[in-house]
Amino acid sequence: MAQDNKWSSKAGFILASAGAAIGLGAIWKFPYVTGMNGGGIFLLFFIAFTLLLGLPMLISEFIVGRGSGKEAVSAYEKLAPNSLWTLVGKIGVLGCFLLLSFYSVVGGWVLIYTIMSMFGYVIHGGADYATTFQLVTESPWITLLGTALFLLANIIVITMGIKDGIEKASKYLMPLLFIIFVIIVIRAVTLEGAMEGIVFFLKPEISNITAEAVLYALGQSFFALAVGFSAMVTYGSYLNNETNIPFAAASVCIMNILVSLLAGLAIFPVVFSVGLEPAEGPGLLFIVLPAAFSQMPLGELFLALFLILFLIATLTSSFQLIEIIVAAFTERSHYSRQKVTWTAGLVIFLVSIPAGLASGVLGDIKLFDKNIFDFTDYLVSNILLPLGALLIALFVVLRMDRTLIREQFNLAGRRSASFYQIWWVLMRYIVPVTIIIVFLNTLGII
């Protein structure tokens, strides 16, 4: 692989990988799922499962990537030529493509909301925030404009390559994200009545444990690290041999947990301080938070800051999704990275139109009693993602060369036989079984 398609530094790789993992799952889904599943006890299970399940899978994808030196599709073709294992990378590319078809729509909503908030059009006297959200999502022109602008931002970064595009953007955006988070958290925890929200989020209540909450924590922790579609395989393929994979993966894990903690501390104190319910579901970001921020001094400013950090997280996560597609097609064609990126962006935009219009003019079209947006989300999140994760785990355990695995695991770090054995036991016995349990649960079988 050409040197300009490598990460220039360990820090750049970690920030880019953390940015890929920190997206809708960490800042949007995690708070409302936590609110619906008991607060602190859910957080405790989430952290434990992230370290015991998500981290081993993240290490595995990085090992497949650097061990092959290839992007997601070519990696499996190189490591297991002329076998059905080559389908794993193709499932990943397909999954990322479908995920982007609705992820870009949500990114567009966030972008539109951010612009509206910066100009004072979200919080105003007598505002009905549910109606505002409905007007944005049901307007075809607003939705498609937001989607187009969101994808354009991605295209600009991806065309600039790994070092000058993704890595450089992540080096600026990720620290900015943490700075804004700290500002919002400081304001949130100093509100009157905020302590009730802090206690709800951080204090585990054993009485709140349910089987459903544990399974939700399993799924959230496992998929919060952006593993399952081999996108981290592509990021791993850009690694040099001076980076220790377990250390880098652990750093990404810790940053992901930290952002989840910050998201909870930014949201729950505000929600509780104004007497709203924490278990509001997906409308928490676009409906509940504007209502909450409207009742505090400088609410429009802090809402704008929160939306900016959410936009940053959504962008850095989408960089990875588009990169796996661009890398796969660039590897197999004589076209330049720029041409492939613009073509991929245009195709993704066209495919995203049905999902973007699912809340409006195409709202009556149903697939298995779901609108187009919800059906695509279900297909990706409940079927393709766990299937891809299971296949990656099985590939590492059953097909990949053990000598190559151990070599990649120990590169640029102190050799630790015990750490390697723990990781191997988790990958061989615990992770696949857990994925199957989560898979069956999402399908409603258990």
From TrEMBL:
One of its GO terms (molecular function) is symporter activity. The keyword Transmembrane helix applies. CDD domains: SLC6sbd_Tyt1-Like. InterPro entries: Na/ntran_symport (IPR000175), SNS_sf (IPR037272), YocR/YhdH-like (IPR047218). The chain crosses the membrane at residues 12-30, 42-64, 84-103, 109-129, 141-162, 174-202, 214-235, 247-272, 302-328, 340-358, 378-398, 419-440. Pfam families: SNF. The keyword Disulfide bond does not apply. Keywords: Membrane, Symport, Transmembrane, Transmembrane helix, Transport. It is a multi-pass membrane protein. Belongs to the sodium:neurotransmitter symporter (SNF) (TC 2.A.22) family. PANTHER family: TRANSPORTER. This is Transporter.
